[in-house]
Specification:
By secondary structure, the protein is an alpha+beta fold. The protein has 3 domains: about 190 residues, no CATH class; about 220 residues, no CATH class; about 200 residues, no CATH class. It has 20 helices and 10 strands. Helix content is about 65%, strand content about 10%. This is Bacitracin export permease protein BceB. Keywords: Membrane, Transmembrane, Transmembrane helix.
Length: about 650
């Protein structure tokens, strides 16, 4: 008898159960895919410069997706367990032993979780390989399809099992402390929410956290990364307690309150339950409308690069390569500027070009007076118009501690207080001497040493075949440039100085035309990746809100039928449902748009404080366009989903 009752009950609620497990599968798939992308990005992307640029994007994305999917899994499994607990409580009332019901619930839950995990990982693999394959077809020169490491499988399984186990145990404890009539009852109880002016303190704390986040945002690159987490915490505190205070204030505006009470009923009666969904939506929209929007607007338009490069080729070579260089110049009727150089490396491994003060004077015509361990730092700038002094502490701290010679792994172990590697920076400024062959201006800059110090270091490196000691700068005309590049690049491949690792961002030979073509392709690839992240977040936001609405569909049906019986017109009933389905998303969007405005002005301040100049009109136009498209797309999707919910509700009441 019990068997038939259980099977009939299961079949009648099958749609609800499938909904929750599908959401769990998608959460696991998304978790696996983004952890996998974060793991393979530096291995899959062939170009070291592009890989380093994308790594920070995927680190942030992986962290946020982890947060989103974990809470989505908790949300879906909590609702599933609550549904099944009601069913199994009914079985207990009909005579089933409590121990037997718990055991059956555990078996059913375990089987469902195992299937969710297996299908989630399979789907995650599909998304991971699909994304890589699509990008590989578009940019084969930049990306190869790479399998994720075994740790991604381990971490995904571990995180999923931990969440599922935690939800099961917590809800069993909750169930054990309640009586059977409460568990069976479908009555909805009003949940507590923050009430009273005392909660203004939490809003003020949230504002304080946002101010702290702003302070971190203007700091070092590491502080900048962490500031996004601080921003989210502050934004959630302001939104969560601010909305509660607004709801309390609206109760005193009787006319408005009574006119809109049905539409805002969710917030008044289920405020705490909606906070979890609000938090997830805030995180999603925050990342999309702040970091990604600014990053996308910054790289547009794709053809904005100015070819502000004085030389066709820059070659860091050895003295014995002189005969080949002179032959190349004669053969292709070119010009060559030659000067002694050494490789210079910062503490984090970025390589630069070191020259003497006298050679720098010949190259630029600028008077230089250095002594002992004094240095000048010239930051190559492709947008250079006039020299700008740089006073930012990040630059001062980075370039005051330098190694002479190319990057070696043991450099990371040397103390930053060792006087052997400390230098006195006389000046840091922007320039356009050889051209900017770095996407972030933290590589391939010129370090100018005093003549005596440079000569000592240069003599020490002349006998090392693995060190470049001569900088050769070439210019060619017309088609001869292309032929000269082919011959020089072939020679460099066979006989030139090379990095010890293929993952280094720097090279010993740069061709300006090839670099600019590659740079435009890098930006296009980076733009595609950022658009992919934004689309993934947009879909996640819709899915989170959709799961929440569909899980409460029976409640909508009961309210719709009640309002119909009370005489409310169909148009007004539909308007009420439409408002309810969009409400949380609208609150999250409003809060994140406000935060996005603050964020973009903070970004402009950061650029100005880092001596990068102010944002131009083109940036602002693209920023407004991207935000506008995102909001319109969200509005369209939410409206279409609301229409679907209305049809489901009306069909359920036929």
């Amino acid at each position: 008898m019990f068997y038939h009752i259980i099977m009939k009950n299961f079949k009648s609620n099958l749609k609800n159960y499938i909904l929750f497990f599908v959401s769990n599968i998608l959460a696991i798939a998304e978790l696996f895919a983004f952890w996998g992308l974060n793991d393979v990005v530096k291995k899959a992307v062939k170009d070291g410069v592009t890989a380093a640029t994308l790594k920070s994007d995927f680190v942030l994305a992986a962290g946020l997706i982890t947060f989103i999917t974990v809470f989505l899994m908790i949300f879906s499994m909590k609702y599933y367990m609550k549904l099944r607990i009601k069913d199994y409580t009914t079985f207990i009332v009909l005579g089933m032993k409590k121990k037997t019901s718990y055991l059956l619930l555990l078996v059913e839950y375990t089987v469902g979780c195992v299937f969710s995990l297996v299908f989630g990982i399979l789907m995650g693999n599909g998304i991971l390989y699909g994304a890589q394959t699509a990008l590989h077809k578009l940019y084969p020169e930049f990306l190869k399809v790479t399998a994720p490491g075994w740790k991604i499988y381990r971490n995904t399984c571990g995180m999923s099992v931990a969440n599922m186990t935690g939800v099961f145990l917590i809800l069993l404890v909750w169930m054990d402390g309640r009586n059977l009539s409460t568990l069976i009852s479908k009555s909805e109880y009003n949940e507590k929410r923050p009430v009273g002016k005392k909660w203004i303190l939490m809003v003020l704390i949230g504002i304080g956290v946002l101010v702290l986040g702003e302070n971190q945002y203007q700091g070092s690159d590491l502080s900048y990364m962490y500031s996004h987490i601080i921003f989210i915490v502050g934004l959630f505190l302001v939104a969560a307690f601010g909305v509660a205070l607004i709801l309390e204030g609206l109760k005193h505006r009787k006319q408005f309150y009574h006119r809109h009470i049905l539409q805002m009923n969710q917030l008044y009666s289920k405020y705490m339950n909606n906070l979890l969904i609000l938090l997830i939506l805030l995180v999603i929209h925050f990342f999309a409308l702040t970091y990604l929007t600014v990053e996308i607007a910054e790289v547009l338009p794709l053809d904005k690069y100015r070819e502000n490069y004085p030389y066709d080729m820059v070659w860091m070579a050895k003295e014995e390569d002189e005969a080949f260089a002179e032959k190349l110049v004669r053969k292709y009727d070119g010009n060559m500027t030659e000067l002694p150089m050494i490789r210079v490396t910062t503490y984090y491994g970025a390589q630069h070009i070191g020259v003497s003060a006298s050679e720098y004077e010949k190259l630029t015509g600028k008077d230089v007076n250095l002594s002992e361990r004094e240095i000048l730092v010239g930051i190559e700038d492709s947008e250079y118009q006039k020299e700008k002094k740089i006073t930012d502490e990040d630059y001062l701290n980075t370039y005051s501690f330098l190694f002479t010679g190319k990057y070696q792994e043991d450099m990371a172990e040397i103390s930053h207080t060792d006087p052997q590697y400390l230098y006195d920076i006389k000046d840091i400024f922007t320039q356009n001497v050889i051209g900017q062959y770095s996407t972030d201006q933290w590589h391939e800059n010129i370090i100018v040493f005093s003549d005596t110090y440079f000569q000592k270091q240069w003599e020490a490196m002349r006998g090392d075949d693995q060190e470049a000691t001569v900088l050769r700068l070439f210019t060619f005309s017309g088609k001869r440039k292309e032929n000269a590049w082919k011959e020089l690049s072939e020679y460099q491949k066979e006989c030139g100085v090379k990095n010890d690792s293929d993952t280094r961002m720097e090279s010993y030979l740069y061709g300006t035309e090839e670099y600019l073509i590659g740079q435009k392709m890098r930006v296009l690839f980076s733009l595609s990746s950022k658009l992919f992240l934004m689309m993934a977040l947009f879909i996640s936001a819709f899915f989170v809100n959709g799961i929440k609405i569909l899980s409460e569909l029976s409640g909508y049906e009961r309210r719709y039928e009640f309002l119909r019986c009370m005489g409310m017109k169909q148009k007004q009933r539909r308007k009420t449902i439409r408002f309810e389905t969009q409400m949380l998303s609208d609150i999250a969007l409003f809060a994140t748009v406000m935060m996005g405005i603050v964020y973009v002005f903070s970004y402009e301040w950061r650029c100005a404080s880092k001596d990068a100049g102010s944002l131009d009109v083109t940036f602002w136009m693209y920023w407004i366009l991207i935000v506008g498209i995102y909001l319109l797309a969200d509005r369209l999707v939410q409206w279409l989903f609301a229409q679907y919910v209305i049809k489901r509700v009306e069909k359920g009441n036929d």
